[in-house]
Amino acid sequence: MVPDLFIIISSDTVRSTGSKRIREITAGHERLDVIARCFLNTLRAANRLAFYTTFILYLSHPKENKAIFIPISKDLSISSELDALLFLVSCFKSEKDSVQIRQISFGNLIRSISTNTVLFYLHPNGVSINDFPKLISPTDSLIFVIGSQKDLTSNQERVLHKFGSTRLSLGDKKYLASHVITVILYCLQMNLYKDI
Ligand SMILES: C[S@@+](CC[C@H](N)C(=O)[O-])C[C@H]1O[C@@H](n2cnc3c(N)ncnc32)[C@H](O)[C@@H]1O
């Protein structure tokens, strides 16, 4: 069976309603630009990995608490940040059959997908990425949870702790979420396919 790979990025600025004009978004409105870069980097790396990959955007604004599930398919013709933005905007308009938007608390989201998966929370204070290979095996399903332009809240951190997450660190410096995604998925690829 193909293992699952979930990339979860949490944002309290992106809203499910309201204007999603590209000119405003590229100027930083709701910081959907941050999510678009994360989505694009996930897509590029996921196509090189033997996982069934789902990108989950969690809207943590108190009036939202929604998860947007976007299955990553090789058929998605997205090759630029603008393509990624346009795709995300179309998800909010329910134009994509494969994309699901679900009202769910962060805790229930993690509960619903964390059975039989290894749960990682990306944080500068954690186990070094160099030790990552020791923590997984090739058949494991994996979840990586990442902050957006802001870190996760302490409540979200408590949830992750409750579900047995391991903090994984790229070092003391803080990196952009999209760069963190590229690094972890590259490490995953190197670790799983090093014998090829
Ligand atoms: C741009 S950072 C969040 C904002 C950041 N705390 C700041 O002060 O600007 C985005 C996310 O990437 C992840 N991240 C950033 N640096 C990291 C590191 N050195 N190791 C592991 N994860 C990191 C964390 O999940 C973080 O919430």
What binds here, in terms of ligands, is: S-adenosylmethionine
Identify the CATH homologous superfamily: SPOUT methyltransferase, trefoil knot domain
Radius of gyration: 16 Å
Text of the CATH class: Alpha Beta
Task: Identify the quaternary structure here.
Answer: single chain
Largest sheet: 7 strands, mixed
Stretches where pLDDT is under 50 for at least 5 consecutive residues are none
Number of strands: 7
Q: Helical proportion? A: 25-40%
Q: Helix- and strand-based class?
A: alpha/beta
Number of domains: 1
The name CATH uses for the topology is Alpha/beta knot
Give the CA-based shape. Answer: globular
CATH architecture: 3-Layer(aba) Sandwich
- Give the helix tally: 7
The topology string of helices and strands comes to EHHEEHEHEHEHEH
Key structural traits:
Alpha/beta knot; binds S-adenosylmethionine; alpha/beta; 7-stranded mixed beta sheet; 196 residues
Explain what you see:
Strands 4-3-2-1-6-5-7 form a seven-stranded mixed β-sheet, sandwiched between helices. The chain has helices at 22-26, 32-46, 81-92, 106-113, 132-135, 154-162, 177-192; strands spanning 4-11, 52-59, 66-71, 100-103, 117-128, 141-147, 166-169. It has seven helices and seven strands, in the order βααββαβαβαβαβα. 34% of the residues are buried. A hairpin with a 6-residue loop joins strand 2 (52-59) and strand 3. The chain starts with a strand and ends with a helix. The chain has 196 residues and is α/β, with parallel strands linked by helices. Bound molecules: S-adenosylmethionine. S-adenosylmethionine binds at residues 122-124, 146-147, 149-151, 169-171, 173-177, 180. S-adenosylmethionine binds next to strand 5, strand 6 and helix 7.
